[in-house]
Amino acid sequence: MSERVVVTLTLNGGRRTFEVAPGRRLLDLIREDAGLTGTKEGCAAGECGACVVLLDGAPVTSCLVLAASADGHDVVTVEGLQQSGSLHPFQEALVAQGGVQCGFCTPGLAVTGAAALAYGPGTADERARLLAGNLCRCTGYVKVLEALESASGEKADRAST
Amino acid sequence: MLRRERAHVEEAPGRGPLGGHHERPDARAKVSGSTRYVADLALPGMLHAAVAVAPVASARVSGLDLASARAVDGVEAVLTAADIPGRNLVGVIFEDQPLLAREKVRMVGERLALVAARTPEAAWAAAHLVHADLEPLPAVHDPVQALEPDAPRVHDAGNLIRTFRVVRGDTARARASVVVEAEYRVGGQEHAYLEPQGCLAIPEGRQRITIVASCQCPFYVQHAVARVLGLPLAAVRVEQAPTGGGFGGKEDYPSEPAACAAVLAFATARPVRFVLPRELDMQVSSKRHAMVIRHRWGADRSGHLRFAEVETVLDAGAYIGISTVVAERANVSSIGPYHVPAVRVSTRVAYTNNLFGGAFRGFGTPQVTWAAEATMDRLARACSLDPLEFRRRNLLDDRRRRLCTGQSLRRPVLARECLERAVALAGWDEFHARPRRQEGPMREGMGIGLALYGCNLHHGGQHLDRSSAVVILQPDGSVVVRVGLTEMGQGNLAACQTIAAQALGVEPAHVQVWQPDTTTVGDSGPTVASRGAHASGMAILNAVDRLRKKLDPVAAELLECGERDVELAGGFARVRTDPDHRVPIARLAGEMASRRIEGISTGWYRSRKRRFDPVTGLGDPYEFYAVACHIARVVVDAELGLVRVTEVSAAHDVGKVIHRDVLEGQIQGGIVQGTGWGTSEELKLDRGRLCNPSFTDYIIPTAADVPSIRIAVVESEGPGGPFGAKGIGEPSLIPTAAAVRNAVVEALGLEIDRLPLTPPTIVEALGNRHPFAWVAEEERVRGRSEEVAAGR
After folding, report:
1. Which domain does B591 fall in, by range?
2. Which CATH number, 3.30.565.10, 3.10.20.30, 1.10.150.320, 3.90.226.10, labels domain A5-81?
3. Distance from B267 to chain A by nearest Cα, in Å?
4. Which CATH superfamily includes the segment(s) A89-160?
5. ipTM of this predicted complex?
6. Spatial separation of the C-alpha atoms in residues B199 and B239, rounded to whole Å
7. Which positions in chain B touch A61 (Cβ < 8 Å)?
8. Inter-chain CB proximity B694 and A39 less than 8 Å
9. Residue A84 vs residues A80, A81, A88, B457, B640: alpha-carbon distances, Å
């Protein structure tokens, strides 16, 4: 049980090395070893999406990823969405549109939404399906989807100018 | 948004932020991940708690073997009932529930032993190794059966906990030409807050303790911890952590994990953190009550209600918790916003060996509303009237404003206004004028649900209907506000910030509202009953009034005017009759500080006394009421039994809007949660055990399931709380499932009297009308012939 594995990964842009137990989850590495508590644990079964992070740009539920398997990969958490101190446009839109209530699902939603925006604006249906892996019990998703729409609109506007 | 707010203030000087949609004060920290919930807090030397629970619903405990649990590496303590320093009791109202079972197990998840260990893994491994010798006892799982004389007794005194009634007029003599009867079986609901239950206990010797808890009601937690530790209330400090959703699930229940963590913290003299894993959280925490509701309602030939008889049995589960309080509200809410001359309601609360029922958004009203609205549609059909027209004839209004309890509603009564606004939003007439689309198995329908919600606490809980606030004017003109009611996502921080900013004439961003802490304000009762903004807001307004007794004389001196001429608006103290003559509030605050004038005030609020007779159910159970109307549009797949709610139009009588985004967020969230309860969220119980304690098997709505939501906000100058605001947290959910049910019934042309409307429920209701009914029939026949062949 005392066996350890060395994991070297890029975490929010910085190269970091951790020594962890083989069974350790990426979620625990992020929250406990790296001290980044923005990523939340809501179910530990990959069902709720509160722990979503980007693994090489793709959203994954970090409770179902072994830390060791992230060795050599690029991980971005909610803390890494900010660019030079400014919130990501989707985070900004969530704030502006009133898409935040209890806030527990919000970091995971922010990360998934940021990934969704990277894919392109999409249709309303596509946006709703992209967020369907992130459960939220407070907002009824309406303002969250409006925020994603407005952020994707802004993104499209910027691309066109 | 801040820009928008500033522009708003400049454009409308003196109007203030009320009713606007400035940025929520908690949004930025939450969206960036920097808000720290309980699971994000750690202290040096902190231990992790776990609990060993009973796997069966009814048993005698003949022994507990703790040796293997104690042998697990990292375990610091394994405790049983004998180790509790104070009283072995939890329970908000009745003393029927032990923190740790001694002799008897009455439900799955009953606590047997507590563990503290250096890691959560060790703690849970040890908890699983606690071995209990359990001798099975008879159990009862149906609340109606539980009330039969020969049912197994959950507690020695029998299974009937209490009966509530409303008796007004003589239903037996009522002249009704059309009478309908029905029995509704309405299922419970899991709160499914995204943050599991959790708390952190920090002991200081054995003298006192701090609890940081994810909870709605820090004062409940304070009482519970003081009792199990045998401490005075003053020695228990409860600080509400940022709370990741509540919906009632963090009203009464958090007292239990907090009491567990407190006992472990005292035993080990170490901080103890207790976070429930999701599966256990769903398995053991309280639920919305399942109810069986029988109706016999009658109307005359002209389509006017003549009488209503309602008999409800509410499944309390193995312990009362707050079931009687829920029943008290359900009881007087059973008739809805309708004028009925003769009423006979009885609401019985029964013990069973099921999971225990607790608070859940709506507090018993959604269930009885579901039944009442189903019966309204039934009666409309029996009277050959359109459900809309039937409601128009029976709704309470400014002339007929007497509730079933005899209480006369204060004007304006806005039931009709809400109905008509929702009807217009939904396009009811257009929908019903055109021929119904029928593509393959898809059937369309539209249904109405109306609710009457008594704001704040029932007469029976009036002693708790008070609240405390502290307002501190800082030397730089910024303002600290402390209240006793909690933020759990619903927006109470934003509401309190708006109310304080409005009253002090400053920008919302200059007001900081901090999470409640039992050592900073007086006991303010629970954050429930849609009373958060009301109760905290009224206390804030009182505190601001008192603060102005110190502030206004200084302002008057600076402005060289009379104290009565001072008004606060737009960030200034100014002369009422000469608004350009003004001084910034920041300067005024600095002046007060330099003169050493106390810039702090407390505020207090208590609801008005009312008369109510608990025996007859007559009188004024609530101070004032909010009405809501939802109209749902659905598409039902009559082969698969799938219900898709495509649209909900909602009209709400809100009094006055405090914060528009928060209000809309409550309505949208309530509708989606109500849709889930009505269609997909089923608590599957097998002998008292929840079989689907996960988000894969217990299905709550996702972003892809959201209906299109249209909202009409009906404001008025009537009775209400701060600036005339009523509550919105619960009215937003109450009528949704009823509207969905009535839409499905219209789509399929048959009655469905069980909630939730899952595919199996719908297919079963379709019976022989299901397109593949012949398959089931063939299987039944084949099964019978196989039985014959096997000689059975």
Report:
1. 2-35+466-606
2. 3.10.20.30
3. 26
4. [2Fe-2S]-binding domain (1.10.150.120)
5. 0.97
6. 10
7. none
8. no
9. 10, 10, 10, 48, 51
